[in-house]
Amino acid sequence: MVQRSKWITVLLYLIGIGYGVSIILPLAWVVMLSLKTQLDAFAYPPLFIFKPTFEHYAAIFHDDVFVLAIRNSLIIALSSVFLSLLLAVPATFAIANLTGRRRRLPLLTILLIRMAPGMIYLLPYFAIYNRLKLLDTHIGLIIIYLIFNVPLIIWMLLPVWNSIPRELEEAAVIDGATLWQVLVRVDIPLVRIGIIASGILAFIFSWNEFLFALVVTRRETITLPVAIVRYMAYEGTEWGKISAAAVFIMVPVVIFGFLIRRYMISGLSAGAVKG
């Protein structure tokens, strides 16, 4: 039995290593491609030892459209996260204090909104935005991201919120606190780690989203994932610029990924019992 347990442990480690390699290798290949010249990029057999160049990074940062896309992505992602938290945190507080059918109905509605494929929303949004003159506007894309981020944040925060001892809220009410004061002074400090983690996930979604950004934006509000497509032209695909742009987009995602891991480990599930 002990021997079998060791073999299972070894097998799990091998599966984990294989999965990690399958993720890291494509990323490493993109990073190398962004540092190669056009000649080195198409060398056969592939070059793993080469003189790195930053010409592709210099090219994308001298591209006015790409610089505009950076600004647009930051505005849209940060605004959507801020507004999503502004709506989702009180909504989670309200749902956490509901019971029975009154609680199941909003949760089911939120789940259906979040789980429905985004593709089914494309045509209605395009038609409505075209009538309301919201195409190629920041607010138009922010509204779409709100609809997807708010359910995500609510579902992430609910388990954390449910673990808050009800006695704390009851004691605050007995002391004369209003519901708003209970939310701001009691609950939010206890679930702040969960709020940070869910906000980071919402930012990653907004930062990486491509489908809606492609459909409802034009030149003025183009975002980074859409800007990369410009380097795929009839004259040829500029793989160096695409790779450099992809690496730039990945940097905040990787950083925030590590931040989420840190917050998860430091007490996302135990946020209610930490002051």
If you had to describe this structure to a student in words, what would you say it looks like?
With 275 residues, the chain is mainly alpha-helical. It folds into 2 domains: 1-53; 55-273, MetI-like (MetI-like fold, Orthogonal Bundle), CATH 1.10.3720. It is 76% helix and 1% strand. The protein has 13 helices and 2 strands; from the N terminus they run ααααααααααααββα. The protein has helices spanning 2-34, 38-41, 55-61, 64-96, 101-115, 119-132, 138-162, 166-174, 179-190, 192-208, 211-216, 224-229, 239-267; strands at 232-233, 236-237. Strands 1-2 form a two-stranded antiparallel ribbon. A hairpin with a 2-residue loop joins strand 1 and strand 2 (236-237). Helix 3 packs across helix 13 (239-267) and helix 8 runs antiparallel to helix 9.
Beta-strand segment tally: 2
Number of helices: 13
Mean pLDDT: 84
The CATH architecture of the largest domain would be Orthogonal Bundle
β-strand percent reads under 5%
CATH topology tier name of the largest domain: MetI-like fold
- Class by alpha and beta content: mainly alpha
CATH superfamily of the largest domain: MetI-like
Low-confidence spans? 267-275
SSE run: HHHHHHHHHHHHEEH
Shape: globular
Q: What's the CATH class label of the largest domain? A: Mainly Alpha
Give me the side-by-side strand order of the main sheet: 1-2
Could you tell me the radius of gyration in angstroms? 23 Å
Span between N and C termini? 44 Å
Query: Helix content range of the residues, please?
Result: over 70%
Total discrete domains: 2
Instruction: Characterize the biggest β-sheet.
Output: 2 strands, antiparallel
